[in-house]
Amino acid sequence: MKQDMIVILDLGSSENTTLAREIRALGVYSEIHPHDITKEELNQLPNVKGVILNGGEHRHVDGKDIDVLPEIYEAGYPVIAIDHALACCEVKLSAYPTEEQLKDFVFATCKAEANWNMKNFVADQVERIRSQVGDKKVLLALSGGVDSSVVAAMLIKAIGKQLVCVHVNHGLMRKGESESVVEVFKNQMDANLVYVDASERFLKKLENVDDPEAKRKIIGAEFIRVFEEEARKLEGIDFLAQGTIYPDIVESGTKTAKVVKSHHNVGGLPEDLEFELVEPLYYLFKDEVRACGVELGLPHDMVYRQPFPGPGLGVRCLGAITRERLEAVRESDAILREEFAKSGLDQKVWQYFTIVPDFKSVGVKNNARCFEYPVILRAVNTIDAMTASIEQIDWAILEKITDRILKEVPNVNRVCYDLTPKPCGTIEWE
Ligand SMILES: Nc1ncnc2c1ncn2[C@@H]1O[C@H](COP(=O)(O)OP(=O)(O)OP(=O)(O)O)[C@@H](O)[C@H]1O
Fold first, then answer.
1. What sequence ranges are listed for the domain GMPS ATP-PPase (predicted)?
2. Distance 266 CA to ligand 1 centre (A)
3. Does the beta carbon of 102 lie inside 6 Å of ligand 1?
4. pLDDT tens digits for 333-342?
5. Which residues lie across from 93 on neighbouring strands?
6. What is the rounded average pLDDT of the residues 178-198?
7. Any known ligand binding at 143?
């Protein structure tokens, strides 16, 4: 293993991730572990140089104060405590450490080296994956999104053709998206890729369904069904890889934090399909996942793309999905993305897309009355997706996009710009 590690033990602080990130910012790898980790478990973690007992406002759990096991102090590592007056170590800080205090502990006391970088992380993960998997096969659901793409690239590097990727085209992908998964993974990286075109099947299931929640449920359940069918066709698979990332774990609730939301990746597979999990991005934050993707040689567009909802364009084709309107969403979205890239807005705006509602309005085209759909543009900025503000797009760019959509997208005769911030409008319309 190439990187030194500082272990943070979670004793109810709400700043565990902030602390982990600050230590990583010093160039030293850091992981958060539960307060009741045993000495043996701690000793099994690679290259531990020091331990931080991170106390805080949630230390009182189920009527009593939680604490680390006394044996932790005998594990042979330097220990520092934050906001934990009863800790049995020399250095006890009453409040969150300053940068100087942190540096002093990490470098002077623990003698950790600043050797945390993506090159070393990838090298360590490749080694871990090889020893976990041996000569067995691993299955991965590859959406083409950032997380599963980086997992795929990592596993291809570690075990090559022992990885089987399954990409499901549910017909709700953006223009060119499934094609780019095939191009990058099958053609360029020579991966073992199973491409399933299930568009017809999804569209059939979604016919006449106009309730947004019902649409999302059908898409999710159908995805699991298709993936399960493919998994059953394959033989001798022992592992399932997932793009679980650190915020998924932290948000799912540690032993002291209240559950923010439960997160399942490719959850929902039947229990008789028993796989052991491979999760090589488990300890990475989103920006680190992107940096890891770059290190693994993935195209910039794939790694820095904007977030895309699981149900895809299905929630932007409002109401009951029709092929006609789905095409209008896909084509207008492609134009919007192209024009944003040309003007550099793609580097600035967090998320931008188009929506096509299920009603028509009157217009005039080629001197004749027409009755067609509107396209709604949305471009928002946010830090945490809890609130969002509207991007003030240059008028000339809006006009150019409008002009192109009206000329190039069939069945559309009107373009609108959504000026609603969140709250009260959510980012997506459904
Ligand atoms: N069309 C698809 N084909 C194959 N796998 C998929 C597809 N859609 C989703 N998945 C799998 O389900 C996981 C969760 O999907 P979700 O839409 O929540 O994206 P995510 O957590 O942002 O991950 P990603 O960035 O990889 O899309 C993905 O990481 C991927 O493994």
1. 116-305
2. 7
3. no
4. 999 999 999 9
5. 82
6. 96
7. yes
Sign (positive/negative) of CA torsion 151, 154, 159, 161?
Answer: positive
User: Which range has the top average pLDDT, 101-105, 256-260, 300-304?
Assistant: 101-105
Q: Probe ligand 1: pick from 138, 139, 143, 287, max atoms within 8 Å of CB?
A: 143
**Residue 62 — pLDDT band, cuts 50, 70, 90?**
confident
Give, in degrees to the nearest 5, the angle at Cα 383 between 379 and 386.
85
- Nearest ligand 1 atom, CA 245: 21
* pLDDT, position 259: 44
Hey, whose CA ends up nearest to atom 15 of ligand 1?
A: 310
Q: Whose CA is nearest to atom 9 of ligand 1?
A: 143
Is 213 in contact with 219 (CB distance < 8 Å)? no
HSE at residue 28, side-chain half, CA atoms within 13 A, is 27
**Which residue stretches of 314-417 are H helix?**
323-343, 395-408
DSSP 185: I
138 - beta bridge partners?
Answer: 163, 239
Query: Is 70 exceeded by the pLDDT of residue 406?
Result: yes
Confirm or reject: Cβ of 310 under 6 Å from ligand 1: yes
69, 39 contact by CB (below 8 A) = yes
The reply, when asked if residue 146 is annotated as ligand binding, is yes
98: DSSP letter:
P
Verify whether ligand 1 is closer than 6 Å to residue 158 (CB atom).
no
8 Å CB contact between 394 and 367: no
**Pocket of ligand 1 contains residue 244 by CB under 6 Å:** no
111-126 pLDDT, tens digit per residue, is: 999 999 999 999 999 9
ipTM: 0.96
Ligand 1: residue whose CA is nearest its atom 18 = 310
Give the pairing of strands 368-381 and 389-390. Answer: antiparallel
Taking CA atoms only, the protein residue closest to ligand 1 atom 12 is: 266
The chain-wide mean pLDDT, for the chain, equals 92
Q: DSSP of 205-267, one letter per residue?
A: HHTT---HHHHHHHHHHHHHHHHHHHHHHS-SEEEEE----HHHHHHT--SSSPPS----SS-
Cβ atoms of 11 and 59 within 8 Å: the answer is yes
Nearest to 310 by CA among 223, 243, 398, 247: 223
